[in-house]
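Subject: Protein record for review, amino acid sequence with backbone structure tokens
How to read it: Take the token row as a discrete description of the fold.
Enclosed: The protein record, placed directly beneath this head.
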Amino acid sequence: MQREPDSLSHHHAKCPEDRFLTKRTEWLQGPFRLLIIIIYFSYLRHTLAHPQCLDYQPPFKPPYHLEFCRHYEKFGCCDQKADNSIAMRYWDIMDLIGDEAYAVCGDLVKDIMCQECSPYAAHLFDAEDPYTPVRHLPGLCFAYCSEFHSKCHSVVKYLTNSRTLLETCEKDRSHFCNLINLADQDYCYPNVLRNNNLYSNLGKVVEDTKGCLQLCLTEVANGLRNPVLMVHSGDDSHRMFVAEQIGFIWVYLKDGSRLEQPFLDISGEVLTTQWLGDERGFLGLAFHPKYRNNGRFFIYYSILINGKLEKIRISEMKVSAHDMNVADPHSERVLLEIEEPAANHNGGQLLFGLDGYLYIFTGDGGKAGDPFGKFGNSQNRSALLGKVLRIDVNGSSTDGKPYKIPPDNPFLGEPDAKPEVYAYGVRNMWRCSVDRGDPLTGYGRGRIFCGDVGQNRYEEVDIIVKGGNYGWRAKEGFECFDMKLCQNSSLDDILPIFAYGHHVGKSITGGYVYRGCESPNLNGLYIFGDFMNGRLMALEEDKKSGSWKEKNVCMGDTKTCSFPGLINHHHKFIISFAEDEAGELYFLATSYPSAMSPFGTLYKFMDPSRRAPPGKCKYKSLPVKVRGKKVPFTPRECKNISHPKKLLVLSTLETPTRSPLEKIVLPTKPPGTRQPTSAKPTTSAPKKKIPPKTTTAKLSQEKLKKTTQAKEKQINTSTKTLKKVPPNKKSLLQTKKDKQATGKPSHNPKLPIKGAPEKRKPNQQNQKM
């Protein structure tokens, strides 16, 4: 692990306060207090705005074109299924109100119903608080509501079944519009569409005034004793294996539970102590690329020989033949042991590259300044410390080693170098990762990123290349450390892609390039942190220049993270980062970095500004046969001394299960105001066609509709019958505004005009005149 911290204390994360006025403001009276409140809420209006859907999740970019609520096809809360559902409800209502009311109210009703697709739907429907009822109607600005009421008050009964709203609608327009208005006029419709502050950076990662990326977290596991790593087994089981420094590995299942029996317990063999910041212990774990078939995995840990000699050991083990969730304790086969001259700088990373070889990252031997030998261990290619080693574990060598040397290792055959050495000049690389590559283009795939802990001045991030010299002890970061070695013309070192000084942080924890599915805005960001001060950071690559730009990561404020199950704080000491089998990003942290301290927690990153479209990130996992007991997950975060009863940002982990909008039951008979001349035939009996108005547009529309219906019969294999629309009405996916703008109906022959097939109702024959 990293160096021992200078000063340590228990770290208690603080939950957000319930009120914003403190005792310091209580002396303010009258206009002074009013002025401060106005200024404060003017500030909040910009800082607390965040998009949210009615399902209490961030909006998304629909994967396909929306035919009805087109205004939100680039970014919003509806996919094609939801869009078609709204369209069918809309046309059910239009069937009931008649042609005259349709001509007046059709566009207004469509605009109102489509607010379910708005990226600010949760604000419009007052759904941000999961403990209050969701509105049936979106928040309408008073002037817009007045216009709607004056023209279409008779339609309200089809949009809501709220008795209060229905009674008020009939009696008092002003009262009705006050009821459905919003206190914040920035969010009422249609003002929300005109607010540049809300739409200028919509869909991008939220940044605070200093440019810090605001992310949120979910608590995944807790009660861990200095968790040093989490890895997946790559066997499609989507299990997560979390290792504790004392020598335990625990299995976490897809449902969040932990198996009661550990996967591995070698605590009796592992060298570690209760000292704060002791870097020795169980440090590395990697599963073979073909683990699903061969059950092999590899471990890296500290040992003590005869009570005196300290070493690091790299071993191979196998899973039990009888239980896929337990390792065979008798299967250990030692591959390599390296003597450690000091207690610190033990390295500890194991990983498999895309080439199928095992990479081993060792520290420089410890103490300070790499004082071993003339040039130190790191610059000495005949030493295994301070190196990146690469071996082939699929066989053994002729000289008796339980592994082979890859034939393209850079120093193979050189007399003054160990054949295992792949790269050198590293100090104490703490946490490395392999880039999965861009999900679409594959860009960056196979790159190995590492965080190398510095000495006195700089921490750095490196990309490992074959034969590379990363400078230590000649250099620290971009600067010289040993002036004599630094000025040697033969150094030929590779500079880090990023380094930061000790005024920022004092012990880097390397991370991952995000390539997951759930948070598309994070794709390509290398996210890492600092162990000592708990700071999260990110690097963004300029692909043209090859340079990397720093982006700070901070926890979103209370409003930004107001989603069920999310938190906006974490423990201070960031031990490691992790990636699950689906590519989602995590990190492990503790409030007290001792190997025996049970305060370790596993967190998962979440971008509150944008998610993937519904259904995109679903995956099938292989069944996991569990023989023992499972321990269900219970969140602990935010249960601290100052707020012992507060949980999470919303004080709840559960997503509300009630439906955001109640389904309106349409009457079996049309309203009495319906004009008989405008009556529409039933869908069950043959309909008599009403002659269309003799306009070019109407004739064109009728012709296009017939052509479309013929094509749809070939495409749609369903036996259900789509409800027909008279030619003097618009298609399901077009309203008056669309036609006026284009002069002709819009159409997509690949989609059914009426959306999904409709189920016939028992009394459908009596439903329409």
